[in-house]
Amino acid sequence: MTIKASTGLRDAMLGTVGFKGALANGVLEIYSGAQPATADAAPTGTLLARITLDGGAFSHGSPTNGLNWDTPANAAIQKPSGDNWQGLGLALGTAGWARFKGNPADNDGSSTTLARVDYSVGKTSGDIRLPNINIDVSDPVTVNDASMQLPISK
Amino acid sequence: MIELSTGLRNHCLSTGSFKAALDGGKMYWYSGAKPADADAAIDGAQVLLVTISDNGGAGGLTFAAAAAAGVLAKLASQTWTGTVVADGLAAFFRFVEAGDDPLAASTTAKRFQGTISTTGADINLVDPNLVTSDPNPVDSFNVTLPAV
Questions:
Q1: A120 three-class SS
Q2: pTM for the full predicted model
Q3: CA of A60 vs chain B CAs: smallest distance (Å)
Q4: A75/B6 CB distance under 8 A
Q5: CB contact under 8 A, B10 and A74
Q6: In this structure, is residue B102 part of a structural domain?
Q7: Do β-strands A27-32 and A93-101 pair in parallel, antiparallel, or remain unpaired?
Q8: Residue B142 covered by a domain
Q9: CB distance B15–A20 less than 8 Å?
Q10: Contact B20, B62 (CB under 8 A)
Q11: Does residue B143 lie within any of the structural domains?
Q12: In this predicted complex, what is the ipTM?
């Protein structure tokens, strides 16, 4: 598993608002290349797509078109099955990883306070699977499944 | 590594925190074999050696106001202690939310459990052989949530 929670997200889960609360009304960004070492690090690669609710315009600080998570069950939380997580390709490239960011302003710098979670992306393997990982400008990109699990042992 | 119950994991994945779930709870130390997970019942083969509470009284335990660097510590100003009620070798602990019965099986109660020994355990003691009527203070207690 290559899902990586940021320090800010872990602190939220331990001390304040939990995973769903910390990432409410967030956005998912898909990049080319390999994942950064941690979700605290600045993103690497080329931003290929920005996934929002129904592909609508999103701005940090506003809940409009932000992504939300379903109610957890059996220690796992998922993308709500009825929500359409979608975006358009912003650049040409092969998707390698994705970062889910919360609603507060996130300027893509290094941070130990912002809630983020990173995923590997692939076609047949990876934490998030896309039917087509070769993204081009203006291509529709839809994320059908995303989840987070907390294992028994920590 | 400590084992989180299903109820606690669901809580932390939603809009609640580890701290919110367990502030006011108590920690129970036992001899005998640790149950398979924190959802499981303690079936009676284990012996309760000590209950850790706020200064050894009726009040529950409190964690620090906030986590930092992925670590949540006990509230520094609170004394976590209890009086040993039976002789025995402390082998594991279970930390439960306020009002929870640590002996009962549950997939909704917010709890965690871990090992006790001299080295390499979740709680390491110089001497885990506890003696009836001795005080049993817990000076330091940290919970870490790893990045992955």
A1: strand
A2: 0.91
A3: 20
A4: yes
A5: yes
A6: yes
A7: antiparallel
A8: no
A9: yes
A10: no
A11: no
A12: 0.88
